[in-house]
Specification:
flat; disordered N terminus; four-stranded antiparallel sheet; PABP_1234; single chain
């Protein structure tokens, strides 16, 4: 167990929220337990409850938890003293818990730092930026092995502090590396803010293997100053037939794309365009495919028929022969699995909606090789799913209200109230002070350790309205409870 010395509260602690008593504890080792968390934080004040959050299925730690104190002074002192304290060999990261996620997601007073030296960790980043204001959250991004990715985030409690940090530290040297410090911008906002009409990096493909970087420099250099040229090569040094050319300004890059796209060199026709990230290309291709698929479906609306319950002996030619009497068939196919065995379904497309409607009316339910055909207009997967969901929702029976009122749990004196869970380190409910920002936590009855046996449940029967009141003597788990069942059952809600 980590031992700490209680030190006087620093400047950061003085500006904290006077009503928040719940702390978020991140970067926990997967082996840290509720008991370890309680023992560490209870040194700084009376802990009301703790919880290490776990996966519901595997019960594996999610790497974070919550600690709740009885008063905000203890929470502030724990944040000041225990932040970045090693627990099970791994420094923990503490911040105030806020049940309202809008503050975190808004990005208010949140700054982004990149080009950080790999030696700078959470604590070093916190110490550097704490000079400009009270820090709510501070984190260096790390990979799966715990190594820094070279960038991080700091969120202050005020926008003025964030602006001051940006003004003072942007472009400064940290561990002999010039860092960038600026406002944090979400990925969606960054992507939407990019002006795709202005770019300096140009992509060229369909190059011949004999094409060299000097050839590209000669061809593209006519349009403006070039900062870099690269032809991509494989492990053996062989050209992969594509490369990149970066210009000094966007106007030159745009003119090069317009002039050289389709240019022939060494009997190869070049494709020249704006260089894109892989994720951007994939999204563009996905949107293009979905659009073309939608257009194809819209174009064939009312023309394409779906047929199922086909006999295994029905081939494409046989299916076409069965439906050809109703009009001109533009396509016909029986669906088969990879081994060539019929799936019992297929599609037939006609040249006009009238022909498809006539075939549907005549062939639906017709016996073909001892099987009745099912014929319907072909639908997109999304449309079919929506139609089935609508049908199922109409078919679902309306639940009948129960004639007997449900049993309500009753706990022994001093136990938690209705709807409360039993948590570790929790005093009796009457002693809990009202507090804002109460985090997601687990609580246990005083004296109980995590993993202890469950508390017995006590139930009392409910009396239906109209029955006479009576005194009921119930003995459950060696505890005798005497109460009066009234006609008005609302007192038990």
């Amino acid at each position: 167990m980590a031992q700490v010395q209680v030190q006087p509260q620093g400047a950061n602690a003085g500006g904290v929220n006077q009503f928040v008593t719940s702390l978020y504890v991140g970067d926990l080792d997967v082996n840290v337990t509720d008991s370890q968390l309680y023992d560490l934080f209870n040194q700084l004040g009376q802990v009301v409850s703790v919880r290490v959050c776990r996966d519901l299925t595997t019960q594996r730690s999610l790497g974070y938890g919550y600690v709740n104190y009885g008063n905000p002074q203890d929470a502030a002192r724990a944040l000041e003293v225990l932040n970045f304290t090693p627990l099970s060999g791994k420094p923990i990261r503490i911040m105030y818990s806020n049940r309202d996620p809008t503050v975190r997601r808004s990005g208010t007073a949140n700054i982004f730092i990149k080009n950080l030296d790999k030696a700078i960790d959470h604590k070093a980043l916190h110490d550097t930026f704490s000079a400009f204001g009270n820090i709510l959250s501070c984190k260096v991004a790390v990979d799966s092995s715990g190594q820094s990715k070279g960038y991080g985030f700091v969120q202050y409690d005020s926008e003025d502090a964030a602006q001051k940090a940006i003004e003072k530290l942007n472009g400064m040297l940290l561990n002999d590396k010039q860092v960038y410090v600026g406002p944090f911008v979400r990925k969606q906002e960054r992507d939407s803010a990019v002006d795709k009409t202005r770019f300096t990096n140009v992509f060229v493909k369909n190059l011949s293997e004999a094409t060299l970087e000097e050839d590209l420099k000669k061809a593209f250099g006519e349009f403006g100053a070039i900062t870099s040229i690269a032809i991509m090569k494989d492990e053996d040094g062989k050209s992969r037939s594509f490369g990149f050319i970066n210009f000094e300004n966007a106007e030159d890059a745009a003119r090069a794309v317009e002039a050289l796209n389709g240019h022939k060199f060494d009997n190869k026709e070049w494709f020249v365009g704006r260089a894109q990230k892989k994720s951007e290309r994939e999204m563009e291709l996905k949107n293009r495919y979905e659009q073309s698929a939608k257009e194809a479906v819209d174009k064939s609306q009312g023309l394409n028929l779906y047929i199922k319950n086909l006999d295994d002996s029905i081939s494409d030619d046989k299916l076409k022969e069965m439906f050809s009497t109703y009009g001109t068939i533009t396509s016909c196919k029986v669906m088969r699995d990879p081994s060539g065995v019929s799936k019992g379904s297929g599609f037939v497309a006609f040249s006009s909606p009238e022909e498809a409607s006539r075939a549907l009316a005549e062939m639906n339910g017709k016996m073909i090789v001892s099987k009745p055909l099912y014929v319907a207009l072909a639908q997109r997967k999304e449309e079919r799913r929506a139609r089935l969901q609508a049908q199922f929702s109409q078919m679902r029976p309306i639940g009948m209200a129960s004639a007997v009122a449900p049993r309500m749990p009753m706990y022994p004196p001093g136990g938690p109230g209705l709807g409360q869970q039993i948590f570790y380190g929790q005093p009796q409910p009457a002693m809990l002070p009202p507090q804002a920002g109460f985090g997601y936590q687990q609580q246990l009855v005083p004296g109980m350790r995590p993993g202890g046996g469950p508390m017995p449940n006590f139930f009392m029967p409910m009396v239906q309205q109209g029955q006479q009141g009576q005194v009921v003597n119930v003995r459950v788990a060696d505890v005798e409870v005497l109460f009066h069942c009234s006609k008005d059952s609302s007192q038990f809600r």
